[in-house]
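Severity: low
Component: inverse-folding endpoint
Summary: output formatting inconsistent between runs
Steps to reproduce: submit the following structure tokens with default settings.
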């Protein structure tokens, strides 16, 4: 079956069109547009007109691609920003009316399940695996054995856009702002992921834009190469070094960093801080970076 999945996230809007055969997906088209749907949401509680316009522009192009590739089934998920915004339901209705895309506003639990499915598909079931999905408005922590349903999952109110707006006002951010970010991120992980769950983790996988960007930056990939990012192992010391380097630069300087898409320059410091504190809290010395995430999980689920 040929399936298309759209993921309307807080920081980016993404498309995957794939041929599904059992548990295997063959990608036909994959696109990411940084649309910053959650911009200003932390302060206002609403999606801005400019943010909704950016998402709509991206969806117009995605709809054309879906039709050209002849997808037999189209699934769409909307996550943190759409869940949290007072005008989220109205925007969801507008998307269906204009583009014929029924974007389900999924719960944090469903987001975690689909992310784990996508990240661990085809892996051996032996190791207790933590999947970390750092989004713009939420971060999911999912623990389980590949091939089964997660044994633990939580969606936290912590994300690269949310925590940039909450803590990082300087350009570049001050040492005090970075310390406040680190303390907040560490406190959230320790409060929301029980100590026994963290202690029982054997291996970690990080998915989504923050993680893949850090893997690309660490390798100085220009242009971005998904084959070199997928499976890359990022050590704790590398995370510390990358965070220090990125935080020392103003946003304009980060836009020139090899491996980092310019549109992620404003939020990558918060994302890197969240990943670093997550590794520390879970006593992980390194984490594997994966290109397979909620898009792949939703595509597998839609093809069944």
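Observed output (run 2 of 3):
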């Amino acid at each position: 079956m040929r399936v298309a999945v759209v993921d309307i996230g807080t920081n980016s809007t993404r498309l995957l069109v794939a041929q599904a055969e059992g548990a295997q997906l063959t990608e036909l088209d994959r696109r990411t547009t940084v649309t910053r749907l959650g911009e200003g949401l932390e302060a206002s509680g609403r999606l801005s007109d400019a943010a909704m316009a950016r998402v709509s522009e991206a969806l117009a192009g995605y709809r054309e691609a879906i039709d050209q590739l002849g997808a037999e089934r189209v699934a769409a998920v909307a996550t943190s920003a759409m869940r949290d915004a007072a005008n989220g339901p109205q925007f969801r209705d507008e998307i269906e009316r204009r583009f014929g895309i029924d974007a389900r506003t999924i719960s944090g639990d469903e987001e975690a399940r689909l992310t784990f499915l996508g990240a661990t598909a085809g892996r051996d079931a032996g190791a207790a695996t933590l999947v970390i999905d750092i989004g713009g408005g939420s971060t999911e922590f999912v623990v389980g054995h590949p091939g089964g349903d997660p044994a633990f999952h939580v969606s936290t109110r912590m994300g690269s856009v949310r925590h940039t707006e909450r803590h990082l006002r300087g350009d570049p951010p001050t040492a005090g702002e970075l310390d406040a970010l680190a303390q907040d991120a560490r406190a959230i992980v320790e409060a929301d992921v029980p100590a026994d769950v963290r202690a029982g983790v054997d291996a970690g996988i990080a998915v989504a834009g923050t993680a893949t960007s850090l893997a690309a930056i660490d390798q100085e990939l220009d242009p971005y190469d998904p084959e070199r990012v997928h499976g890359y192992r990022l050590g704790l010391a590398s995370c510390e070094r990358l965070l220090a380097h990125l935080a020392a630069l103003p946003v304009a300087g980060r836009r020139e960093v090899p491996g980092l898409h310019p549109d992620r320059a404003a939020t990558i410091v918060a994302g890197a801080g969240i990943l670093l504190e997550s590794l520390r809290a879970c006593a992980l010395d390194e984490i594997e970076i994966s290109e397979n995430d909620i898009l792949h999980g939703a595509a597998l689920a839609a093809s069944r």
